[in-house]
Structures are given as C-alpha cells and as structure tokens.
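Objective 1.3, modelling of assemblies. Example input:
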Amino acid sequence: MPTEIVDQDFENMPVGQEEKTTVKKGKKPIFIFAGIFGGLLVLLLATAIFLSFQQGQPTTEIETKPTPTPIPEFKEEIIPPSPYATDAAILKMEEEIKNLDQQLTSADLKESGLNPPVLEMKIQFEK
Amino acid sequence: MTYKTLTSKNLALEKTSKMLKDEDEVIRTYLTALRMKLAETTGISNDEQNVLYLKLDNEVVWYGKHQESLSSAATLEDLVDSAKKVADKYQTTEILIYQTLGTILSGKEINFRDQLNNKIQQFKEKIGEIRQRGDKDTALAERWLLEAENRLTRSQEKQFTAQQILAKIKSSDVNKNQSYNKAQFALEESHQYLKEANSYLKEVIREVKSAN
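Predicted structure (tokens):
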C-alpha cells in the first residue's frame, strides 16, 4: 500500500506562538513582584508620613504619680429607721461601742515583750 | 579546768563571778520591768497590786544582796554554791513572774469587762425609757442585752479558770511555762467572750435604731 507522504515545511513553521507563550509565562511573576514591591513602597511611605505627623504634634506628658484608690466607707443604713435612729444618746453609745470594739481587737493578750529571761544556771567545773 | 594552774583558776573565778553577777542583774531588771508594767495596768485591785509589789520588791532585794555576796567569794566552790542558791531561788521567783504576768493579763480583761458592764447598764436604762414610752418594741433588744450579760459571765468563768491554773504552779514544776500558757489560753477565751458581748451590744443599737 502506497504511503502518502505529507509535505511538511519545517522551516516555515510558525515559531512565534511558542515565543509568545514563553514571554507570558516570564512576565507574570514580574508583575506580582512589582505589585508587592509597589504595595510595600506605598505602605512604607504611608508609615513615614504618619510618623512625621506624629513627631510634629506636641507630646503631652502623663504624670505617673500614684493616686490613692478611693475606699468607700461602709455606713450601714437602717431602713426604715425608728424614732431613735438619730437619738443623741443612742448615737453616743454607738460611738463608744465602736471604740471599745477597736480596743478589744487591738488588745495584746500575750505580752510577749515581757517573757521571762532564759537563764542557764547550772555551773560545773571538771576537776 | 584545762591547765590546772593558779592563773587559769583565778581567771575562771573572775569570769564565773561576772557571769553570776550579770545573771542577778538580768533578773533584777526583769522584775523591775514587770513591776512597772503592773503599775500601769488598770483593772487590778489595789490590794492585789500591793501584795505583788511587796513580793517583787523582796525578790529584787534578794538578788541584789546575792549580787553583792559574789564579790566575797574566794573559791570556785563558793561560786558553785552561790549559783545553786540562785537556781533554787529562781524556782520560786518564776512562780511569782508567771503569777504577775497572769495578773497583768487578767487586769486587762477586768478593765474591758467593767467597761462592757457599764455599757450594758446604760443600755438597760435607755431601753427601759423606750419601753415606757411605748413607741418601739424592745423585746429583741432586751434579749440581745441578756445574751451580752451571759457572755460577760462566761468570760469571768474563764478568767477564774486561768487564775486557778496559775495558783497551782509549784516550785518543783519543771515546765512552769506550760501552766502559764494554759492560763493564757483561758484568758484568750475569756477575751473572745468579751468580743462577743460587744458584738451583741452592736445588735442592740441596730435593733433600737430600726423601726419595728
């Protein structure tokens, strides 16, 4: 069976297509790199501008002086109060009881400052 | 004695004499401090205070005389005898020390109890007035007062226990401080009852100030 020989002109084959594809593949990372670089540049510029603005503004010093924590004083409010809630004698007694309470709490019942002295009284000489 | 020479013997005599003198001085100073504390403590009866003053003064005199006698000690044997005398004497002095300390602590308790007792009487009078006016129910306040009185009685009982413990200390007791610690604990319990009594008086105030 006779084989048909197809003429192929290898010399005239279009090579441009292949070149185009290589160009496309090579340019893509460059664009990405350029994008990232540009973004970083913009970010750096923005930071530099922001910092320059910050430096220009007058800084206010914050005093680090410690302030006491306000302790709310507990005052028992009796509701509803009796006619004796404001009685002078009762209020005086209340004050006295409070004072006595403080004295009872702070009383020294050990007198550890008056402990008897520790003495070694046995004397012996070896002959 | 290490060298058994006259020099070393004299040196030992000198050092021992000084040590015994210092010991006497320590006891005398301590007893004087105790006396001063006793004088500034309120709540102790004059009779009890005077008895203790007399005993403490006698002890101070004894140790003073003993201190003087040490100068005349010629031998180490004299000093050993002298030291033994102090050791025997200190057995009874220790009892006096612990009893005085107990009296000082008891005096404080008596003082607080007297104050609380006065407050209870004042409250009783005031509550009596309120009851007579009839504008406030005083039943609950009176119950609190009764409880406060009850705590005072218990406090007194505990103090009595402490005094009994202190009175039983003997000169032959090896650990006298253990008895004193027991007495002190009883006094702390007594004090706790006083605190409770005071807290009940606070309840009386609260009750009187609030409407029915």
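Chain A is about 45% helix and 0% strand.
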